[in-house]
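User: I'm putting together notes for a lab meeting next week and I want to include a structural view of one of the chains we've been expressing. I don't have a solved structure, so I'd like a prediction I can at least talk through. The sequence is below, exactly as it appears in our construct file.
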Amino acid sequence: MARSGTFAAIDVGTTKICTVVGDEQPDGTTRILGVGLAPSAGLSRGMVDNIRDATEAIRISVEQAERSSGTRILCAHVGIAGSHITSMNNRGVVAVPSQTRPIAEDDVTRVIDGARTVSIPTNRDVLHVIPRYYVVDGQDNVTDPIGMYGQRLDVEAHVITAAVSAMQNLTRCVEGIGVQVDALILEPLASAEAVLEDEERRQGVVLADIGGGTTDVAVYVDGAVYHTSVLPVGGYHLTHDLVVGLRAPFAAAEYVKATYGQALPSAVPADEQVEIEAFGGERQRTFSRRRICEILQARCEEIFEMILVEVKRAGYDEIISAGLVLTGGTANLAGIDALAEQVLDMPARIGVPQNIQGLTETVTNPACATSVGLLEWAIRDSRHLLRPSIPHPPLHIGSLWKRFGELARVVLPE
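Assistant: Thanks for the context. Below is the predicted structure for the 414-residue chain, given as C-alpha cells.
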C-alpha cells in the first residue's frame, strides 16, 4: 500500500520490471495512478540470479511508479514465477463443532489449513492454497459455506508450492529497496485476474502468459483454477532463434521480431525484404521477411504444443470449451492467436487487462496483464480483511436464556 486506499504491485519479469500503483473506484473498477517500467537485470527464466542487479532494476521501476503516481510505495504484492513452481490438488476435511451454529470463518480457515498439509521436501514451501469448491455434509460444489449448517466441511483445493530459496531471493530484492512484500502471488493467477472473463472460467479455459523467459499456464474449470505450471520457454527463445537463424546481434533480432514479426508467414508478401544489422564485415544484410516469420512460427508452434501436452497431462483437454487466452509480452506478436487456433484446434484470443481506468494507455497491453492482476489481487485481499462477519440467525428462547446466564456470570461478581 502506498497510502490509505492506494495499492501497489510489482511484476518482476525476465525482460522487464513493471510496478503499478492504483486504487478501487466506487463502481468496482481499478484506477491506475502510476506505472514504472524498467528493463530487467539479474533474472533468468523468472528467477533471481544476481541479487544486486535485480534489486537495482526493481528500485528504478518503483521510483518511476512513485513519481508517476505522486505516492510513496511502502508495501506491495509481488509476482513470482519460474520452473521451480509445482502444483497439486488436495482435500481438507474438518468437523463442525456445533450443530446449533452455522459454519463460520474459522471453520473455513481450519479446513483450508487441512488442505495445506501436503508432503513436500524441506526446501519447498506452500505458496497458495486456493479453494476450488466446498462440500457440506455431502453437498458438492458449494462456493461459499459460511452461514450454512452442517456437521462436516470438506474443501477441494489447488495447492501451489515453490522453492524456498527462490521466494527468499525475490523477497530480499524487493525489501532491499525499502518496500515490504505483502504477498508473493503466482504470476499466471494474477494475469487471470486481469484478463479472463467469468464465463470463460466457468466453461473451461487455458491461460497462457508467454513472458520473456517462461510461459505460465493456468487451467480454469467450473470457475476455479484446476491446474498451474510454468514452462521454461518464452519470448527470449523466439529472439534467440532469430539470432541463430539470421546471425544477427540480440538487440537487432529483438527489433526485427517486434517490427516485422508475424506468426503466420503466409500473411506477409513473399517478395518483401528486410535489412538487418548482422555480424560480419558488411554489418547490414537483407533477408526475406517470410523467412524471419518462418523462424518465429516454428518456435511458437513448439510453445503451443508444450501447452497442449501440459493440459493433457492434467487431464482437462476435453473440457476446455472457451479455448486459449494468450497474454504476456509475446502475445503482441501479430497472428499468434490465429496460429494457436490452427495448432490447438480450439478458440484463441489475446487477453488484455479489463475494467481499468486512469493511465490505461500504458497498461492496456498483454505485457502488463500480470502487474494489473497483482494490483487487483491486492485490492481483493483488502476487501477480504474488511469483510464483516456473518451474523448468526435469531436464537431460540432456550439458547437466549443460556447466553444471558453466561453474560451474568461474567459481569456480576460472585
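A couple of points you could mention at the meeting. Confidence is low (pLDDT under 50) at residues 386-414. The domain at 87-162 is CATH 3.30.1490.110 (Dna Ligase; domain 1).

User: Perfect, that's what I needed.
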